């Protein structure tokens, strides 16, 4: 039985739903990055990074590249970078909207009455 498209999309977004995986994908947008450099940038335990890289590799959105003893990772395609850029645009709009709403709330707040004098 085939998985409905909406379910496949939900599983895809769930796979992206970890801060370390998002950070790895952000770092890989400019090209392949060695694991040692990912560790330096993300500052987590090697075993934790390895687990998150395995999830990304199994999903097919990153690939590993071995050059001697150095292992690097790269995005499997450019669509993931575009998805991250779209997420940034959406978040920017949401946050800007929240700031506008907050300013409106502050501006429309009735003045607080002064406490009665004793």
For this entry, give a set of tags.
5 helices; 118 residues
Q: What's the total number of strands?
A: 3
Residue fraction in strands: 5-15%
Tell me the Rg in angstroms: 22 Å
Average pLDDT across residues?
A: 90
Biggest β-sheet strands, sense, barrel:
3 strands, antiparallel
Strands across the major sheet, in which order? 1-3-2
Count of separate DSSP helical elements: 5
Task: Report, as a whole number of angstroms, the end-to-end distance.
Answer: 77 Å
* Low-confidence spans: none
- The helix/strand order is HHEHHEEH
Summarize the amount of helix as a percent range: 55-70%
Structural class computed from helices and strand pairing: mainly alpha
Tell the overall outline. Answer: elongated
Describe the structure.
- By secondary structure, this protein is mainly α.
- It contains 5 helices and 3 strands; from the N terminus they run H-H-E-H-H-E-E-H.
- Strand 2 and strand 3 form a beta hairpin.
Short description:
The chain is mainly alpha-helical.
SSE blueprint:
Elements: H1 5-16, H2 19-28, E1 33-34, H3 35-42, H4 46-59, E2 62-67, E3 70-75, H5 79-108
Antiparallel strand pairs: 1-3, 2-3
